[in-house]
Q: What sequence folds into this?
């Protein structure tokens, strides 16, 4: 952790703005030479955004969305203090009660037993009609069939997913052909942005120095939860 927040948070903002401004539809129209208004659009300004997972990626996205004028509600496993770029912090147990009040839900969760199909038919139905959804964590945090249904019925105004279940997404999977979805092949992270590689190397160098000096290592993982171990 600590290396991918820049690249992936910018991907999240890009995807969300594309959906809100209907740029994906205009791109299709351009390819077909169609001069046509796609009607009303939405804005990040004033939107209530539920950020599920407030690690490096979720926090970096929250900072950017907050600077656009959004109201940010962060979701963590345990109660934490509210950073100055977040309006409210809640726990996972409180998430369901908030789903019907927000305009956008973004997820950057790891893969674990607790997160498997966290976003299922029940939770998509709990969301406000016309909500936007973005997932950049792990594909299996989302029930793909439930996501497809939510898009086809108009429960969701749009979805942007860089990860899917299964992955790679088969060519004949219905999600490819769902209404108002942007799908990318797990490319928001990796080393597509050169700065990410620099950040990874800097963390590795610091950890090597810490190891040689007998100091505590950064970013140790709790394999039971899939999250970074808490310090101390």
A:
């Amino acid at each position: 952790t600590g290396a991918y927040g820049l690249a992936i948070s910018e991907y999240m903002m890009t995807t969300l703005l594309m959906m809100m401004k209907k740029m994906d539809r205009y791109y299709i129209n351009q390819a077909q030479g169609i001069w046509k208004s796609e009607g009303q659009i939405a804005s990040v300004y004033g939107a209530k955004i539920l950020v599920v997972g407030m690690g490096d990626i979720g926090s970096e996205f929250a900072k950017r969305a907050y600077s656009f004028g959004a109201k940010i509600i962060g979701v963590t496993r345990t109660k934490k203090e509210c950073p100055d770029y977040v309006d409210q912090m809640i726990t996972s147990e409180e998430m369901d009660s908030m789903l019907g009040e927000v305009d956008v839900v973004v997820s950057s969760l790891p893969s674990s037993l607790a997160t498997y199909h966290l976003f299922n038919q029940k939770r998509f139905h709990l969301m406000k009609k016309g909500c936007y959804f973005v997932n950049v964590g792990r594909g299996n945090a989302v029930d793909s069939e439930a996501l497809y249904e939510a898009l086809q019925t108009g429960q969701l105004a749009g979805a942007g997913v860089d990860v899917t279940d299964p992955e790679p997404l088969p060519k004949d999977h219905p999600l490819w052909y769902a209404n108002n979805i942007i799908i990318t092949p797990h490319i928001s992270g990796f080393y597509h942005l050169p700065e990410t590689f620099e950040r990874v190397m800097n963390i590795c160098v610091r950890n090597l120095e810490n190891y040689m000096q007998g100091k505590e290592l950064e970013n140790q993982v709790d394999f039971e939860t899939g999250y970074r171990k808490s310090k101390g």
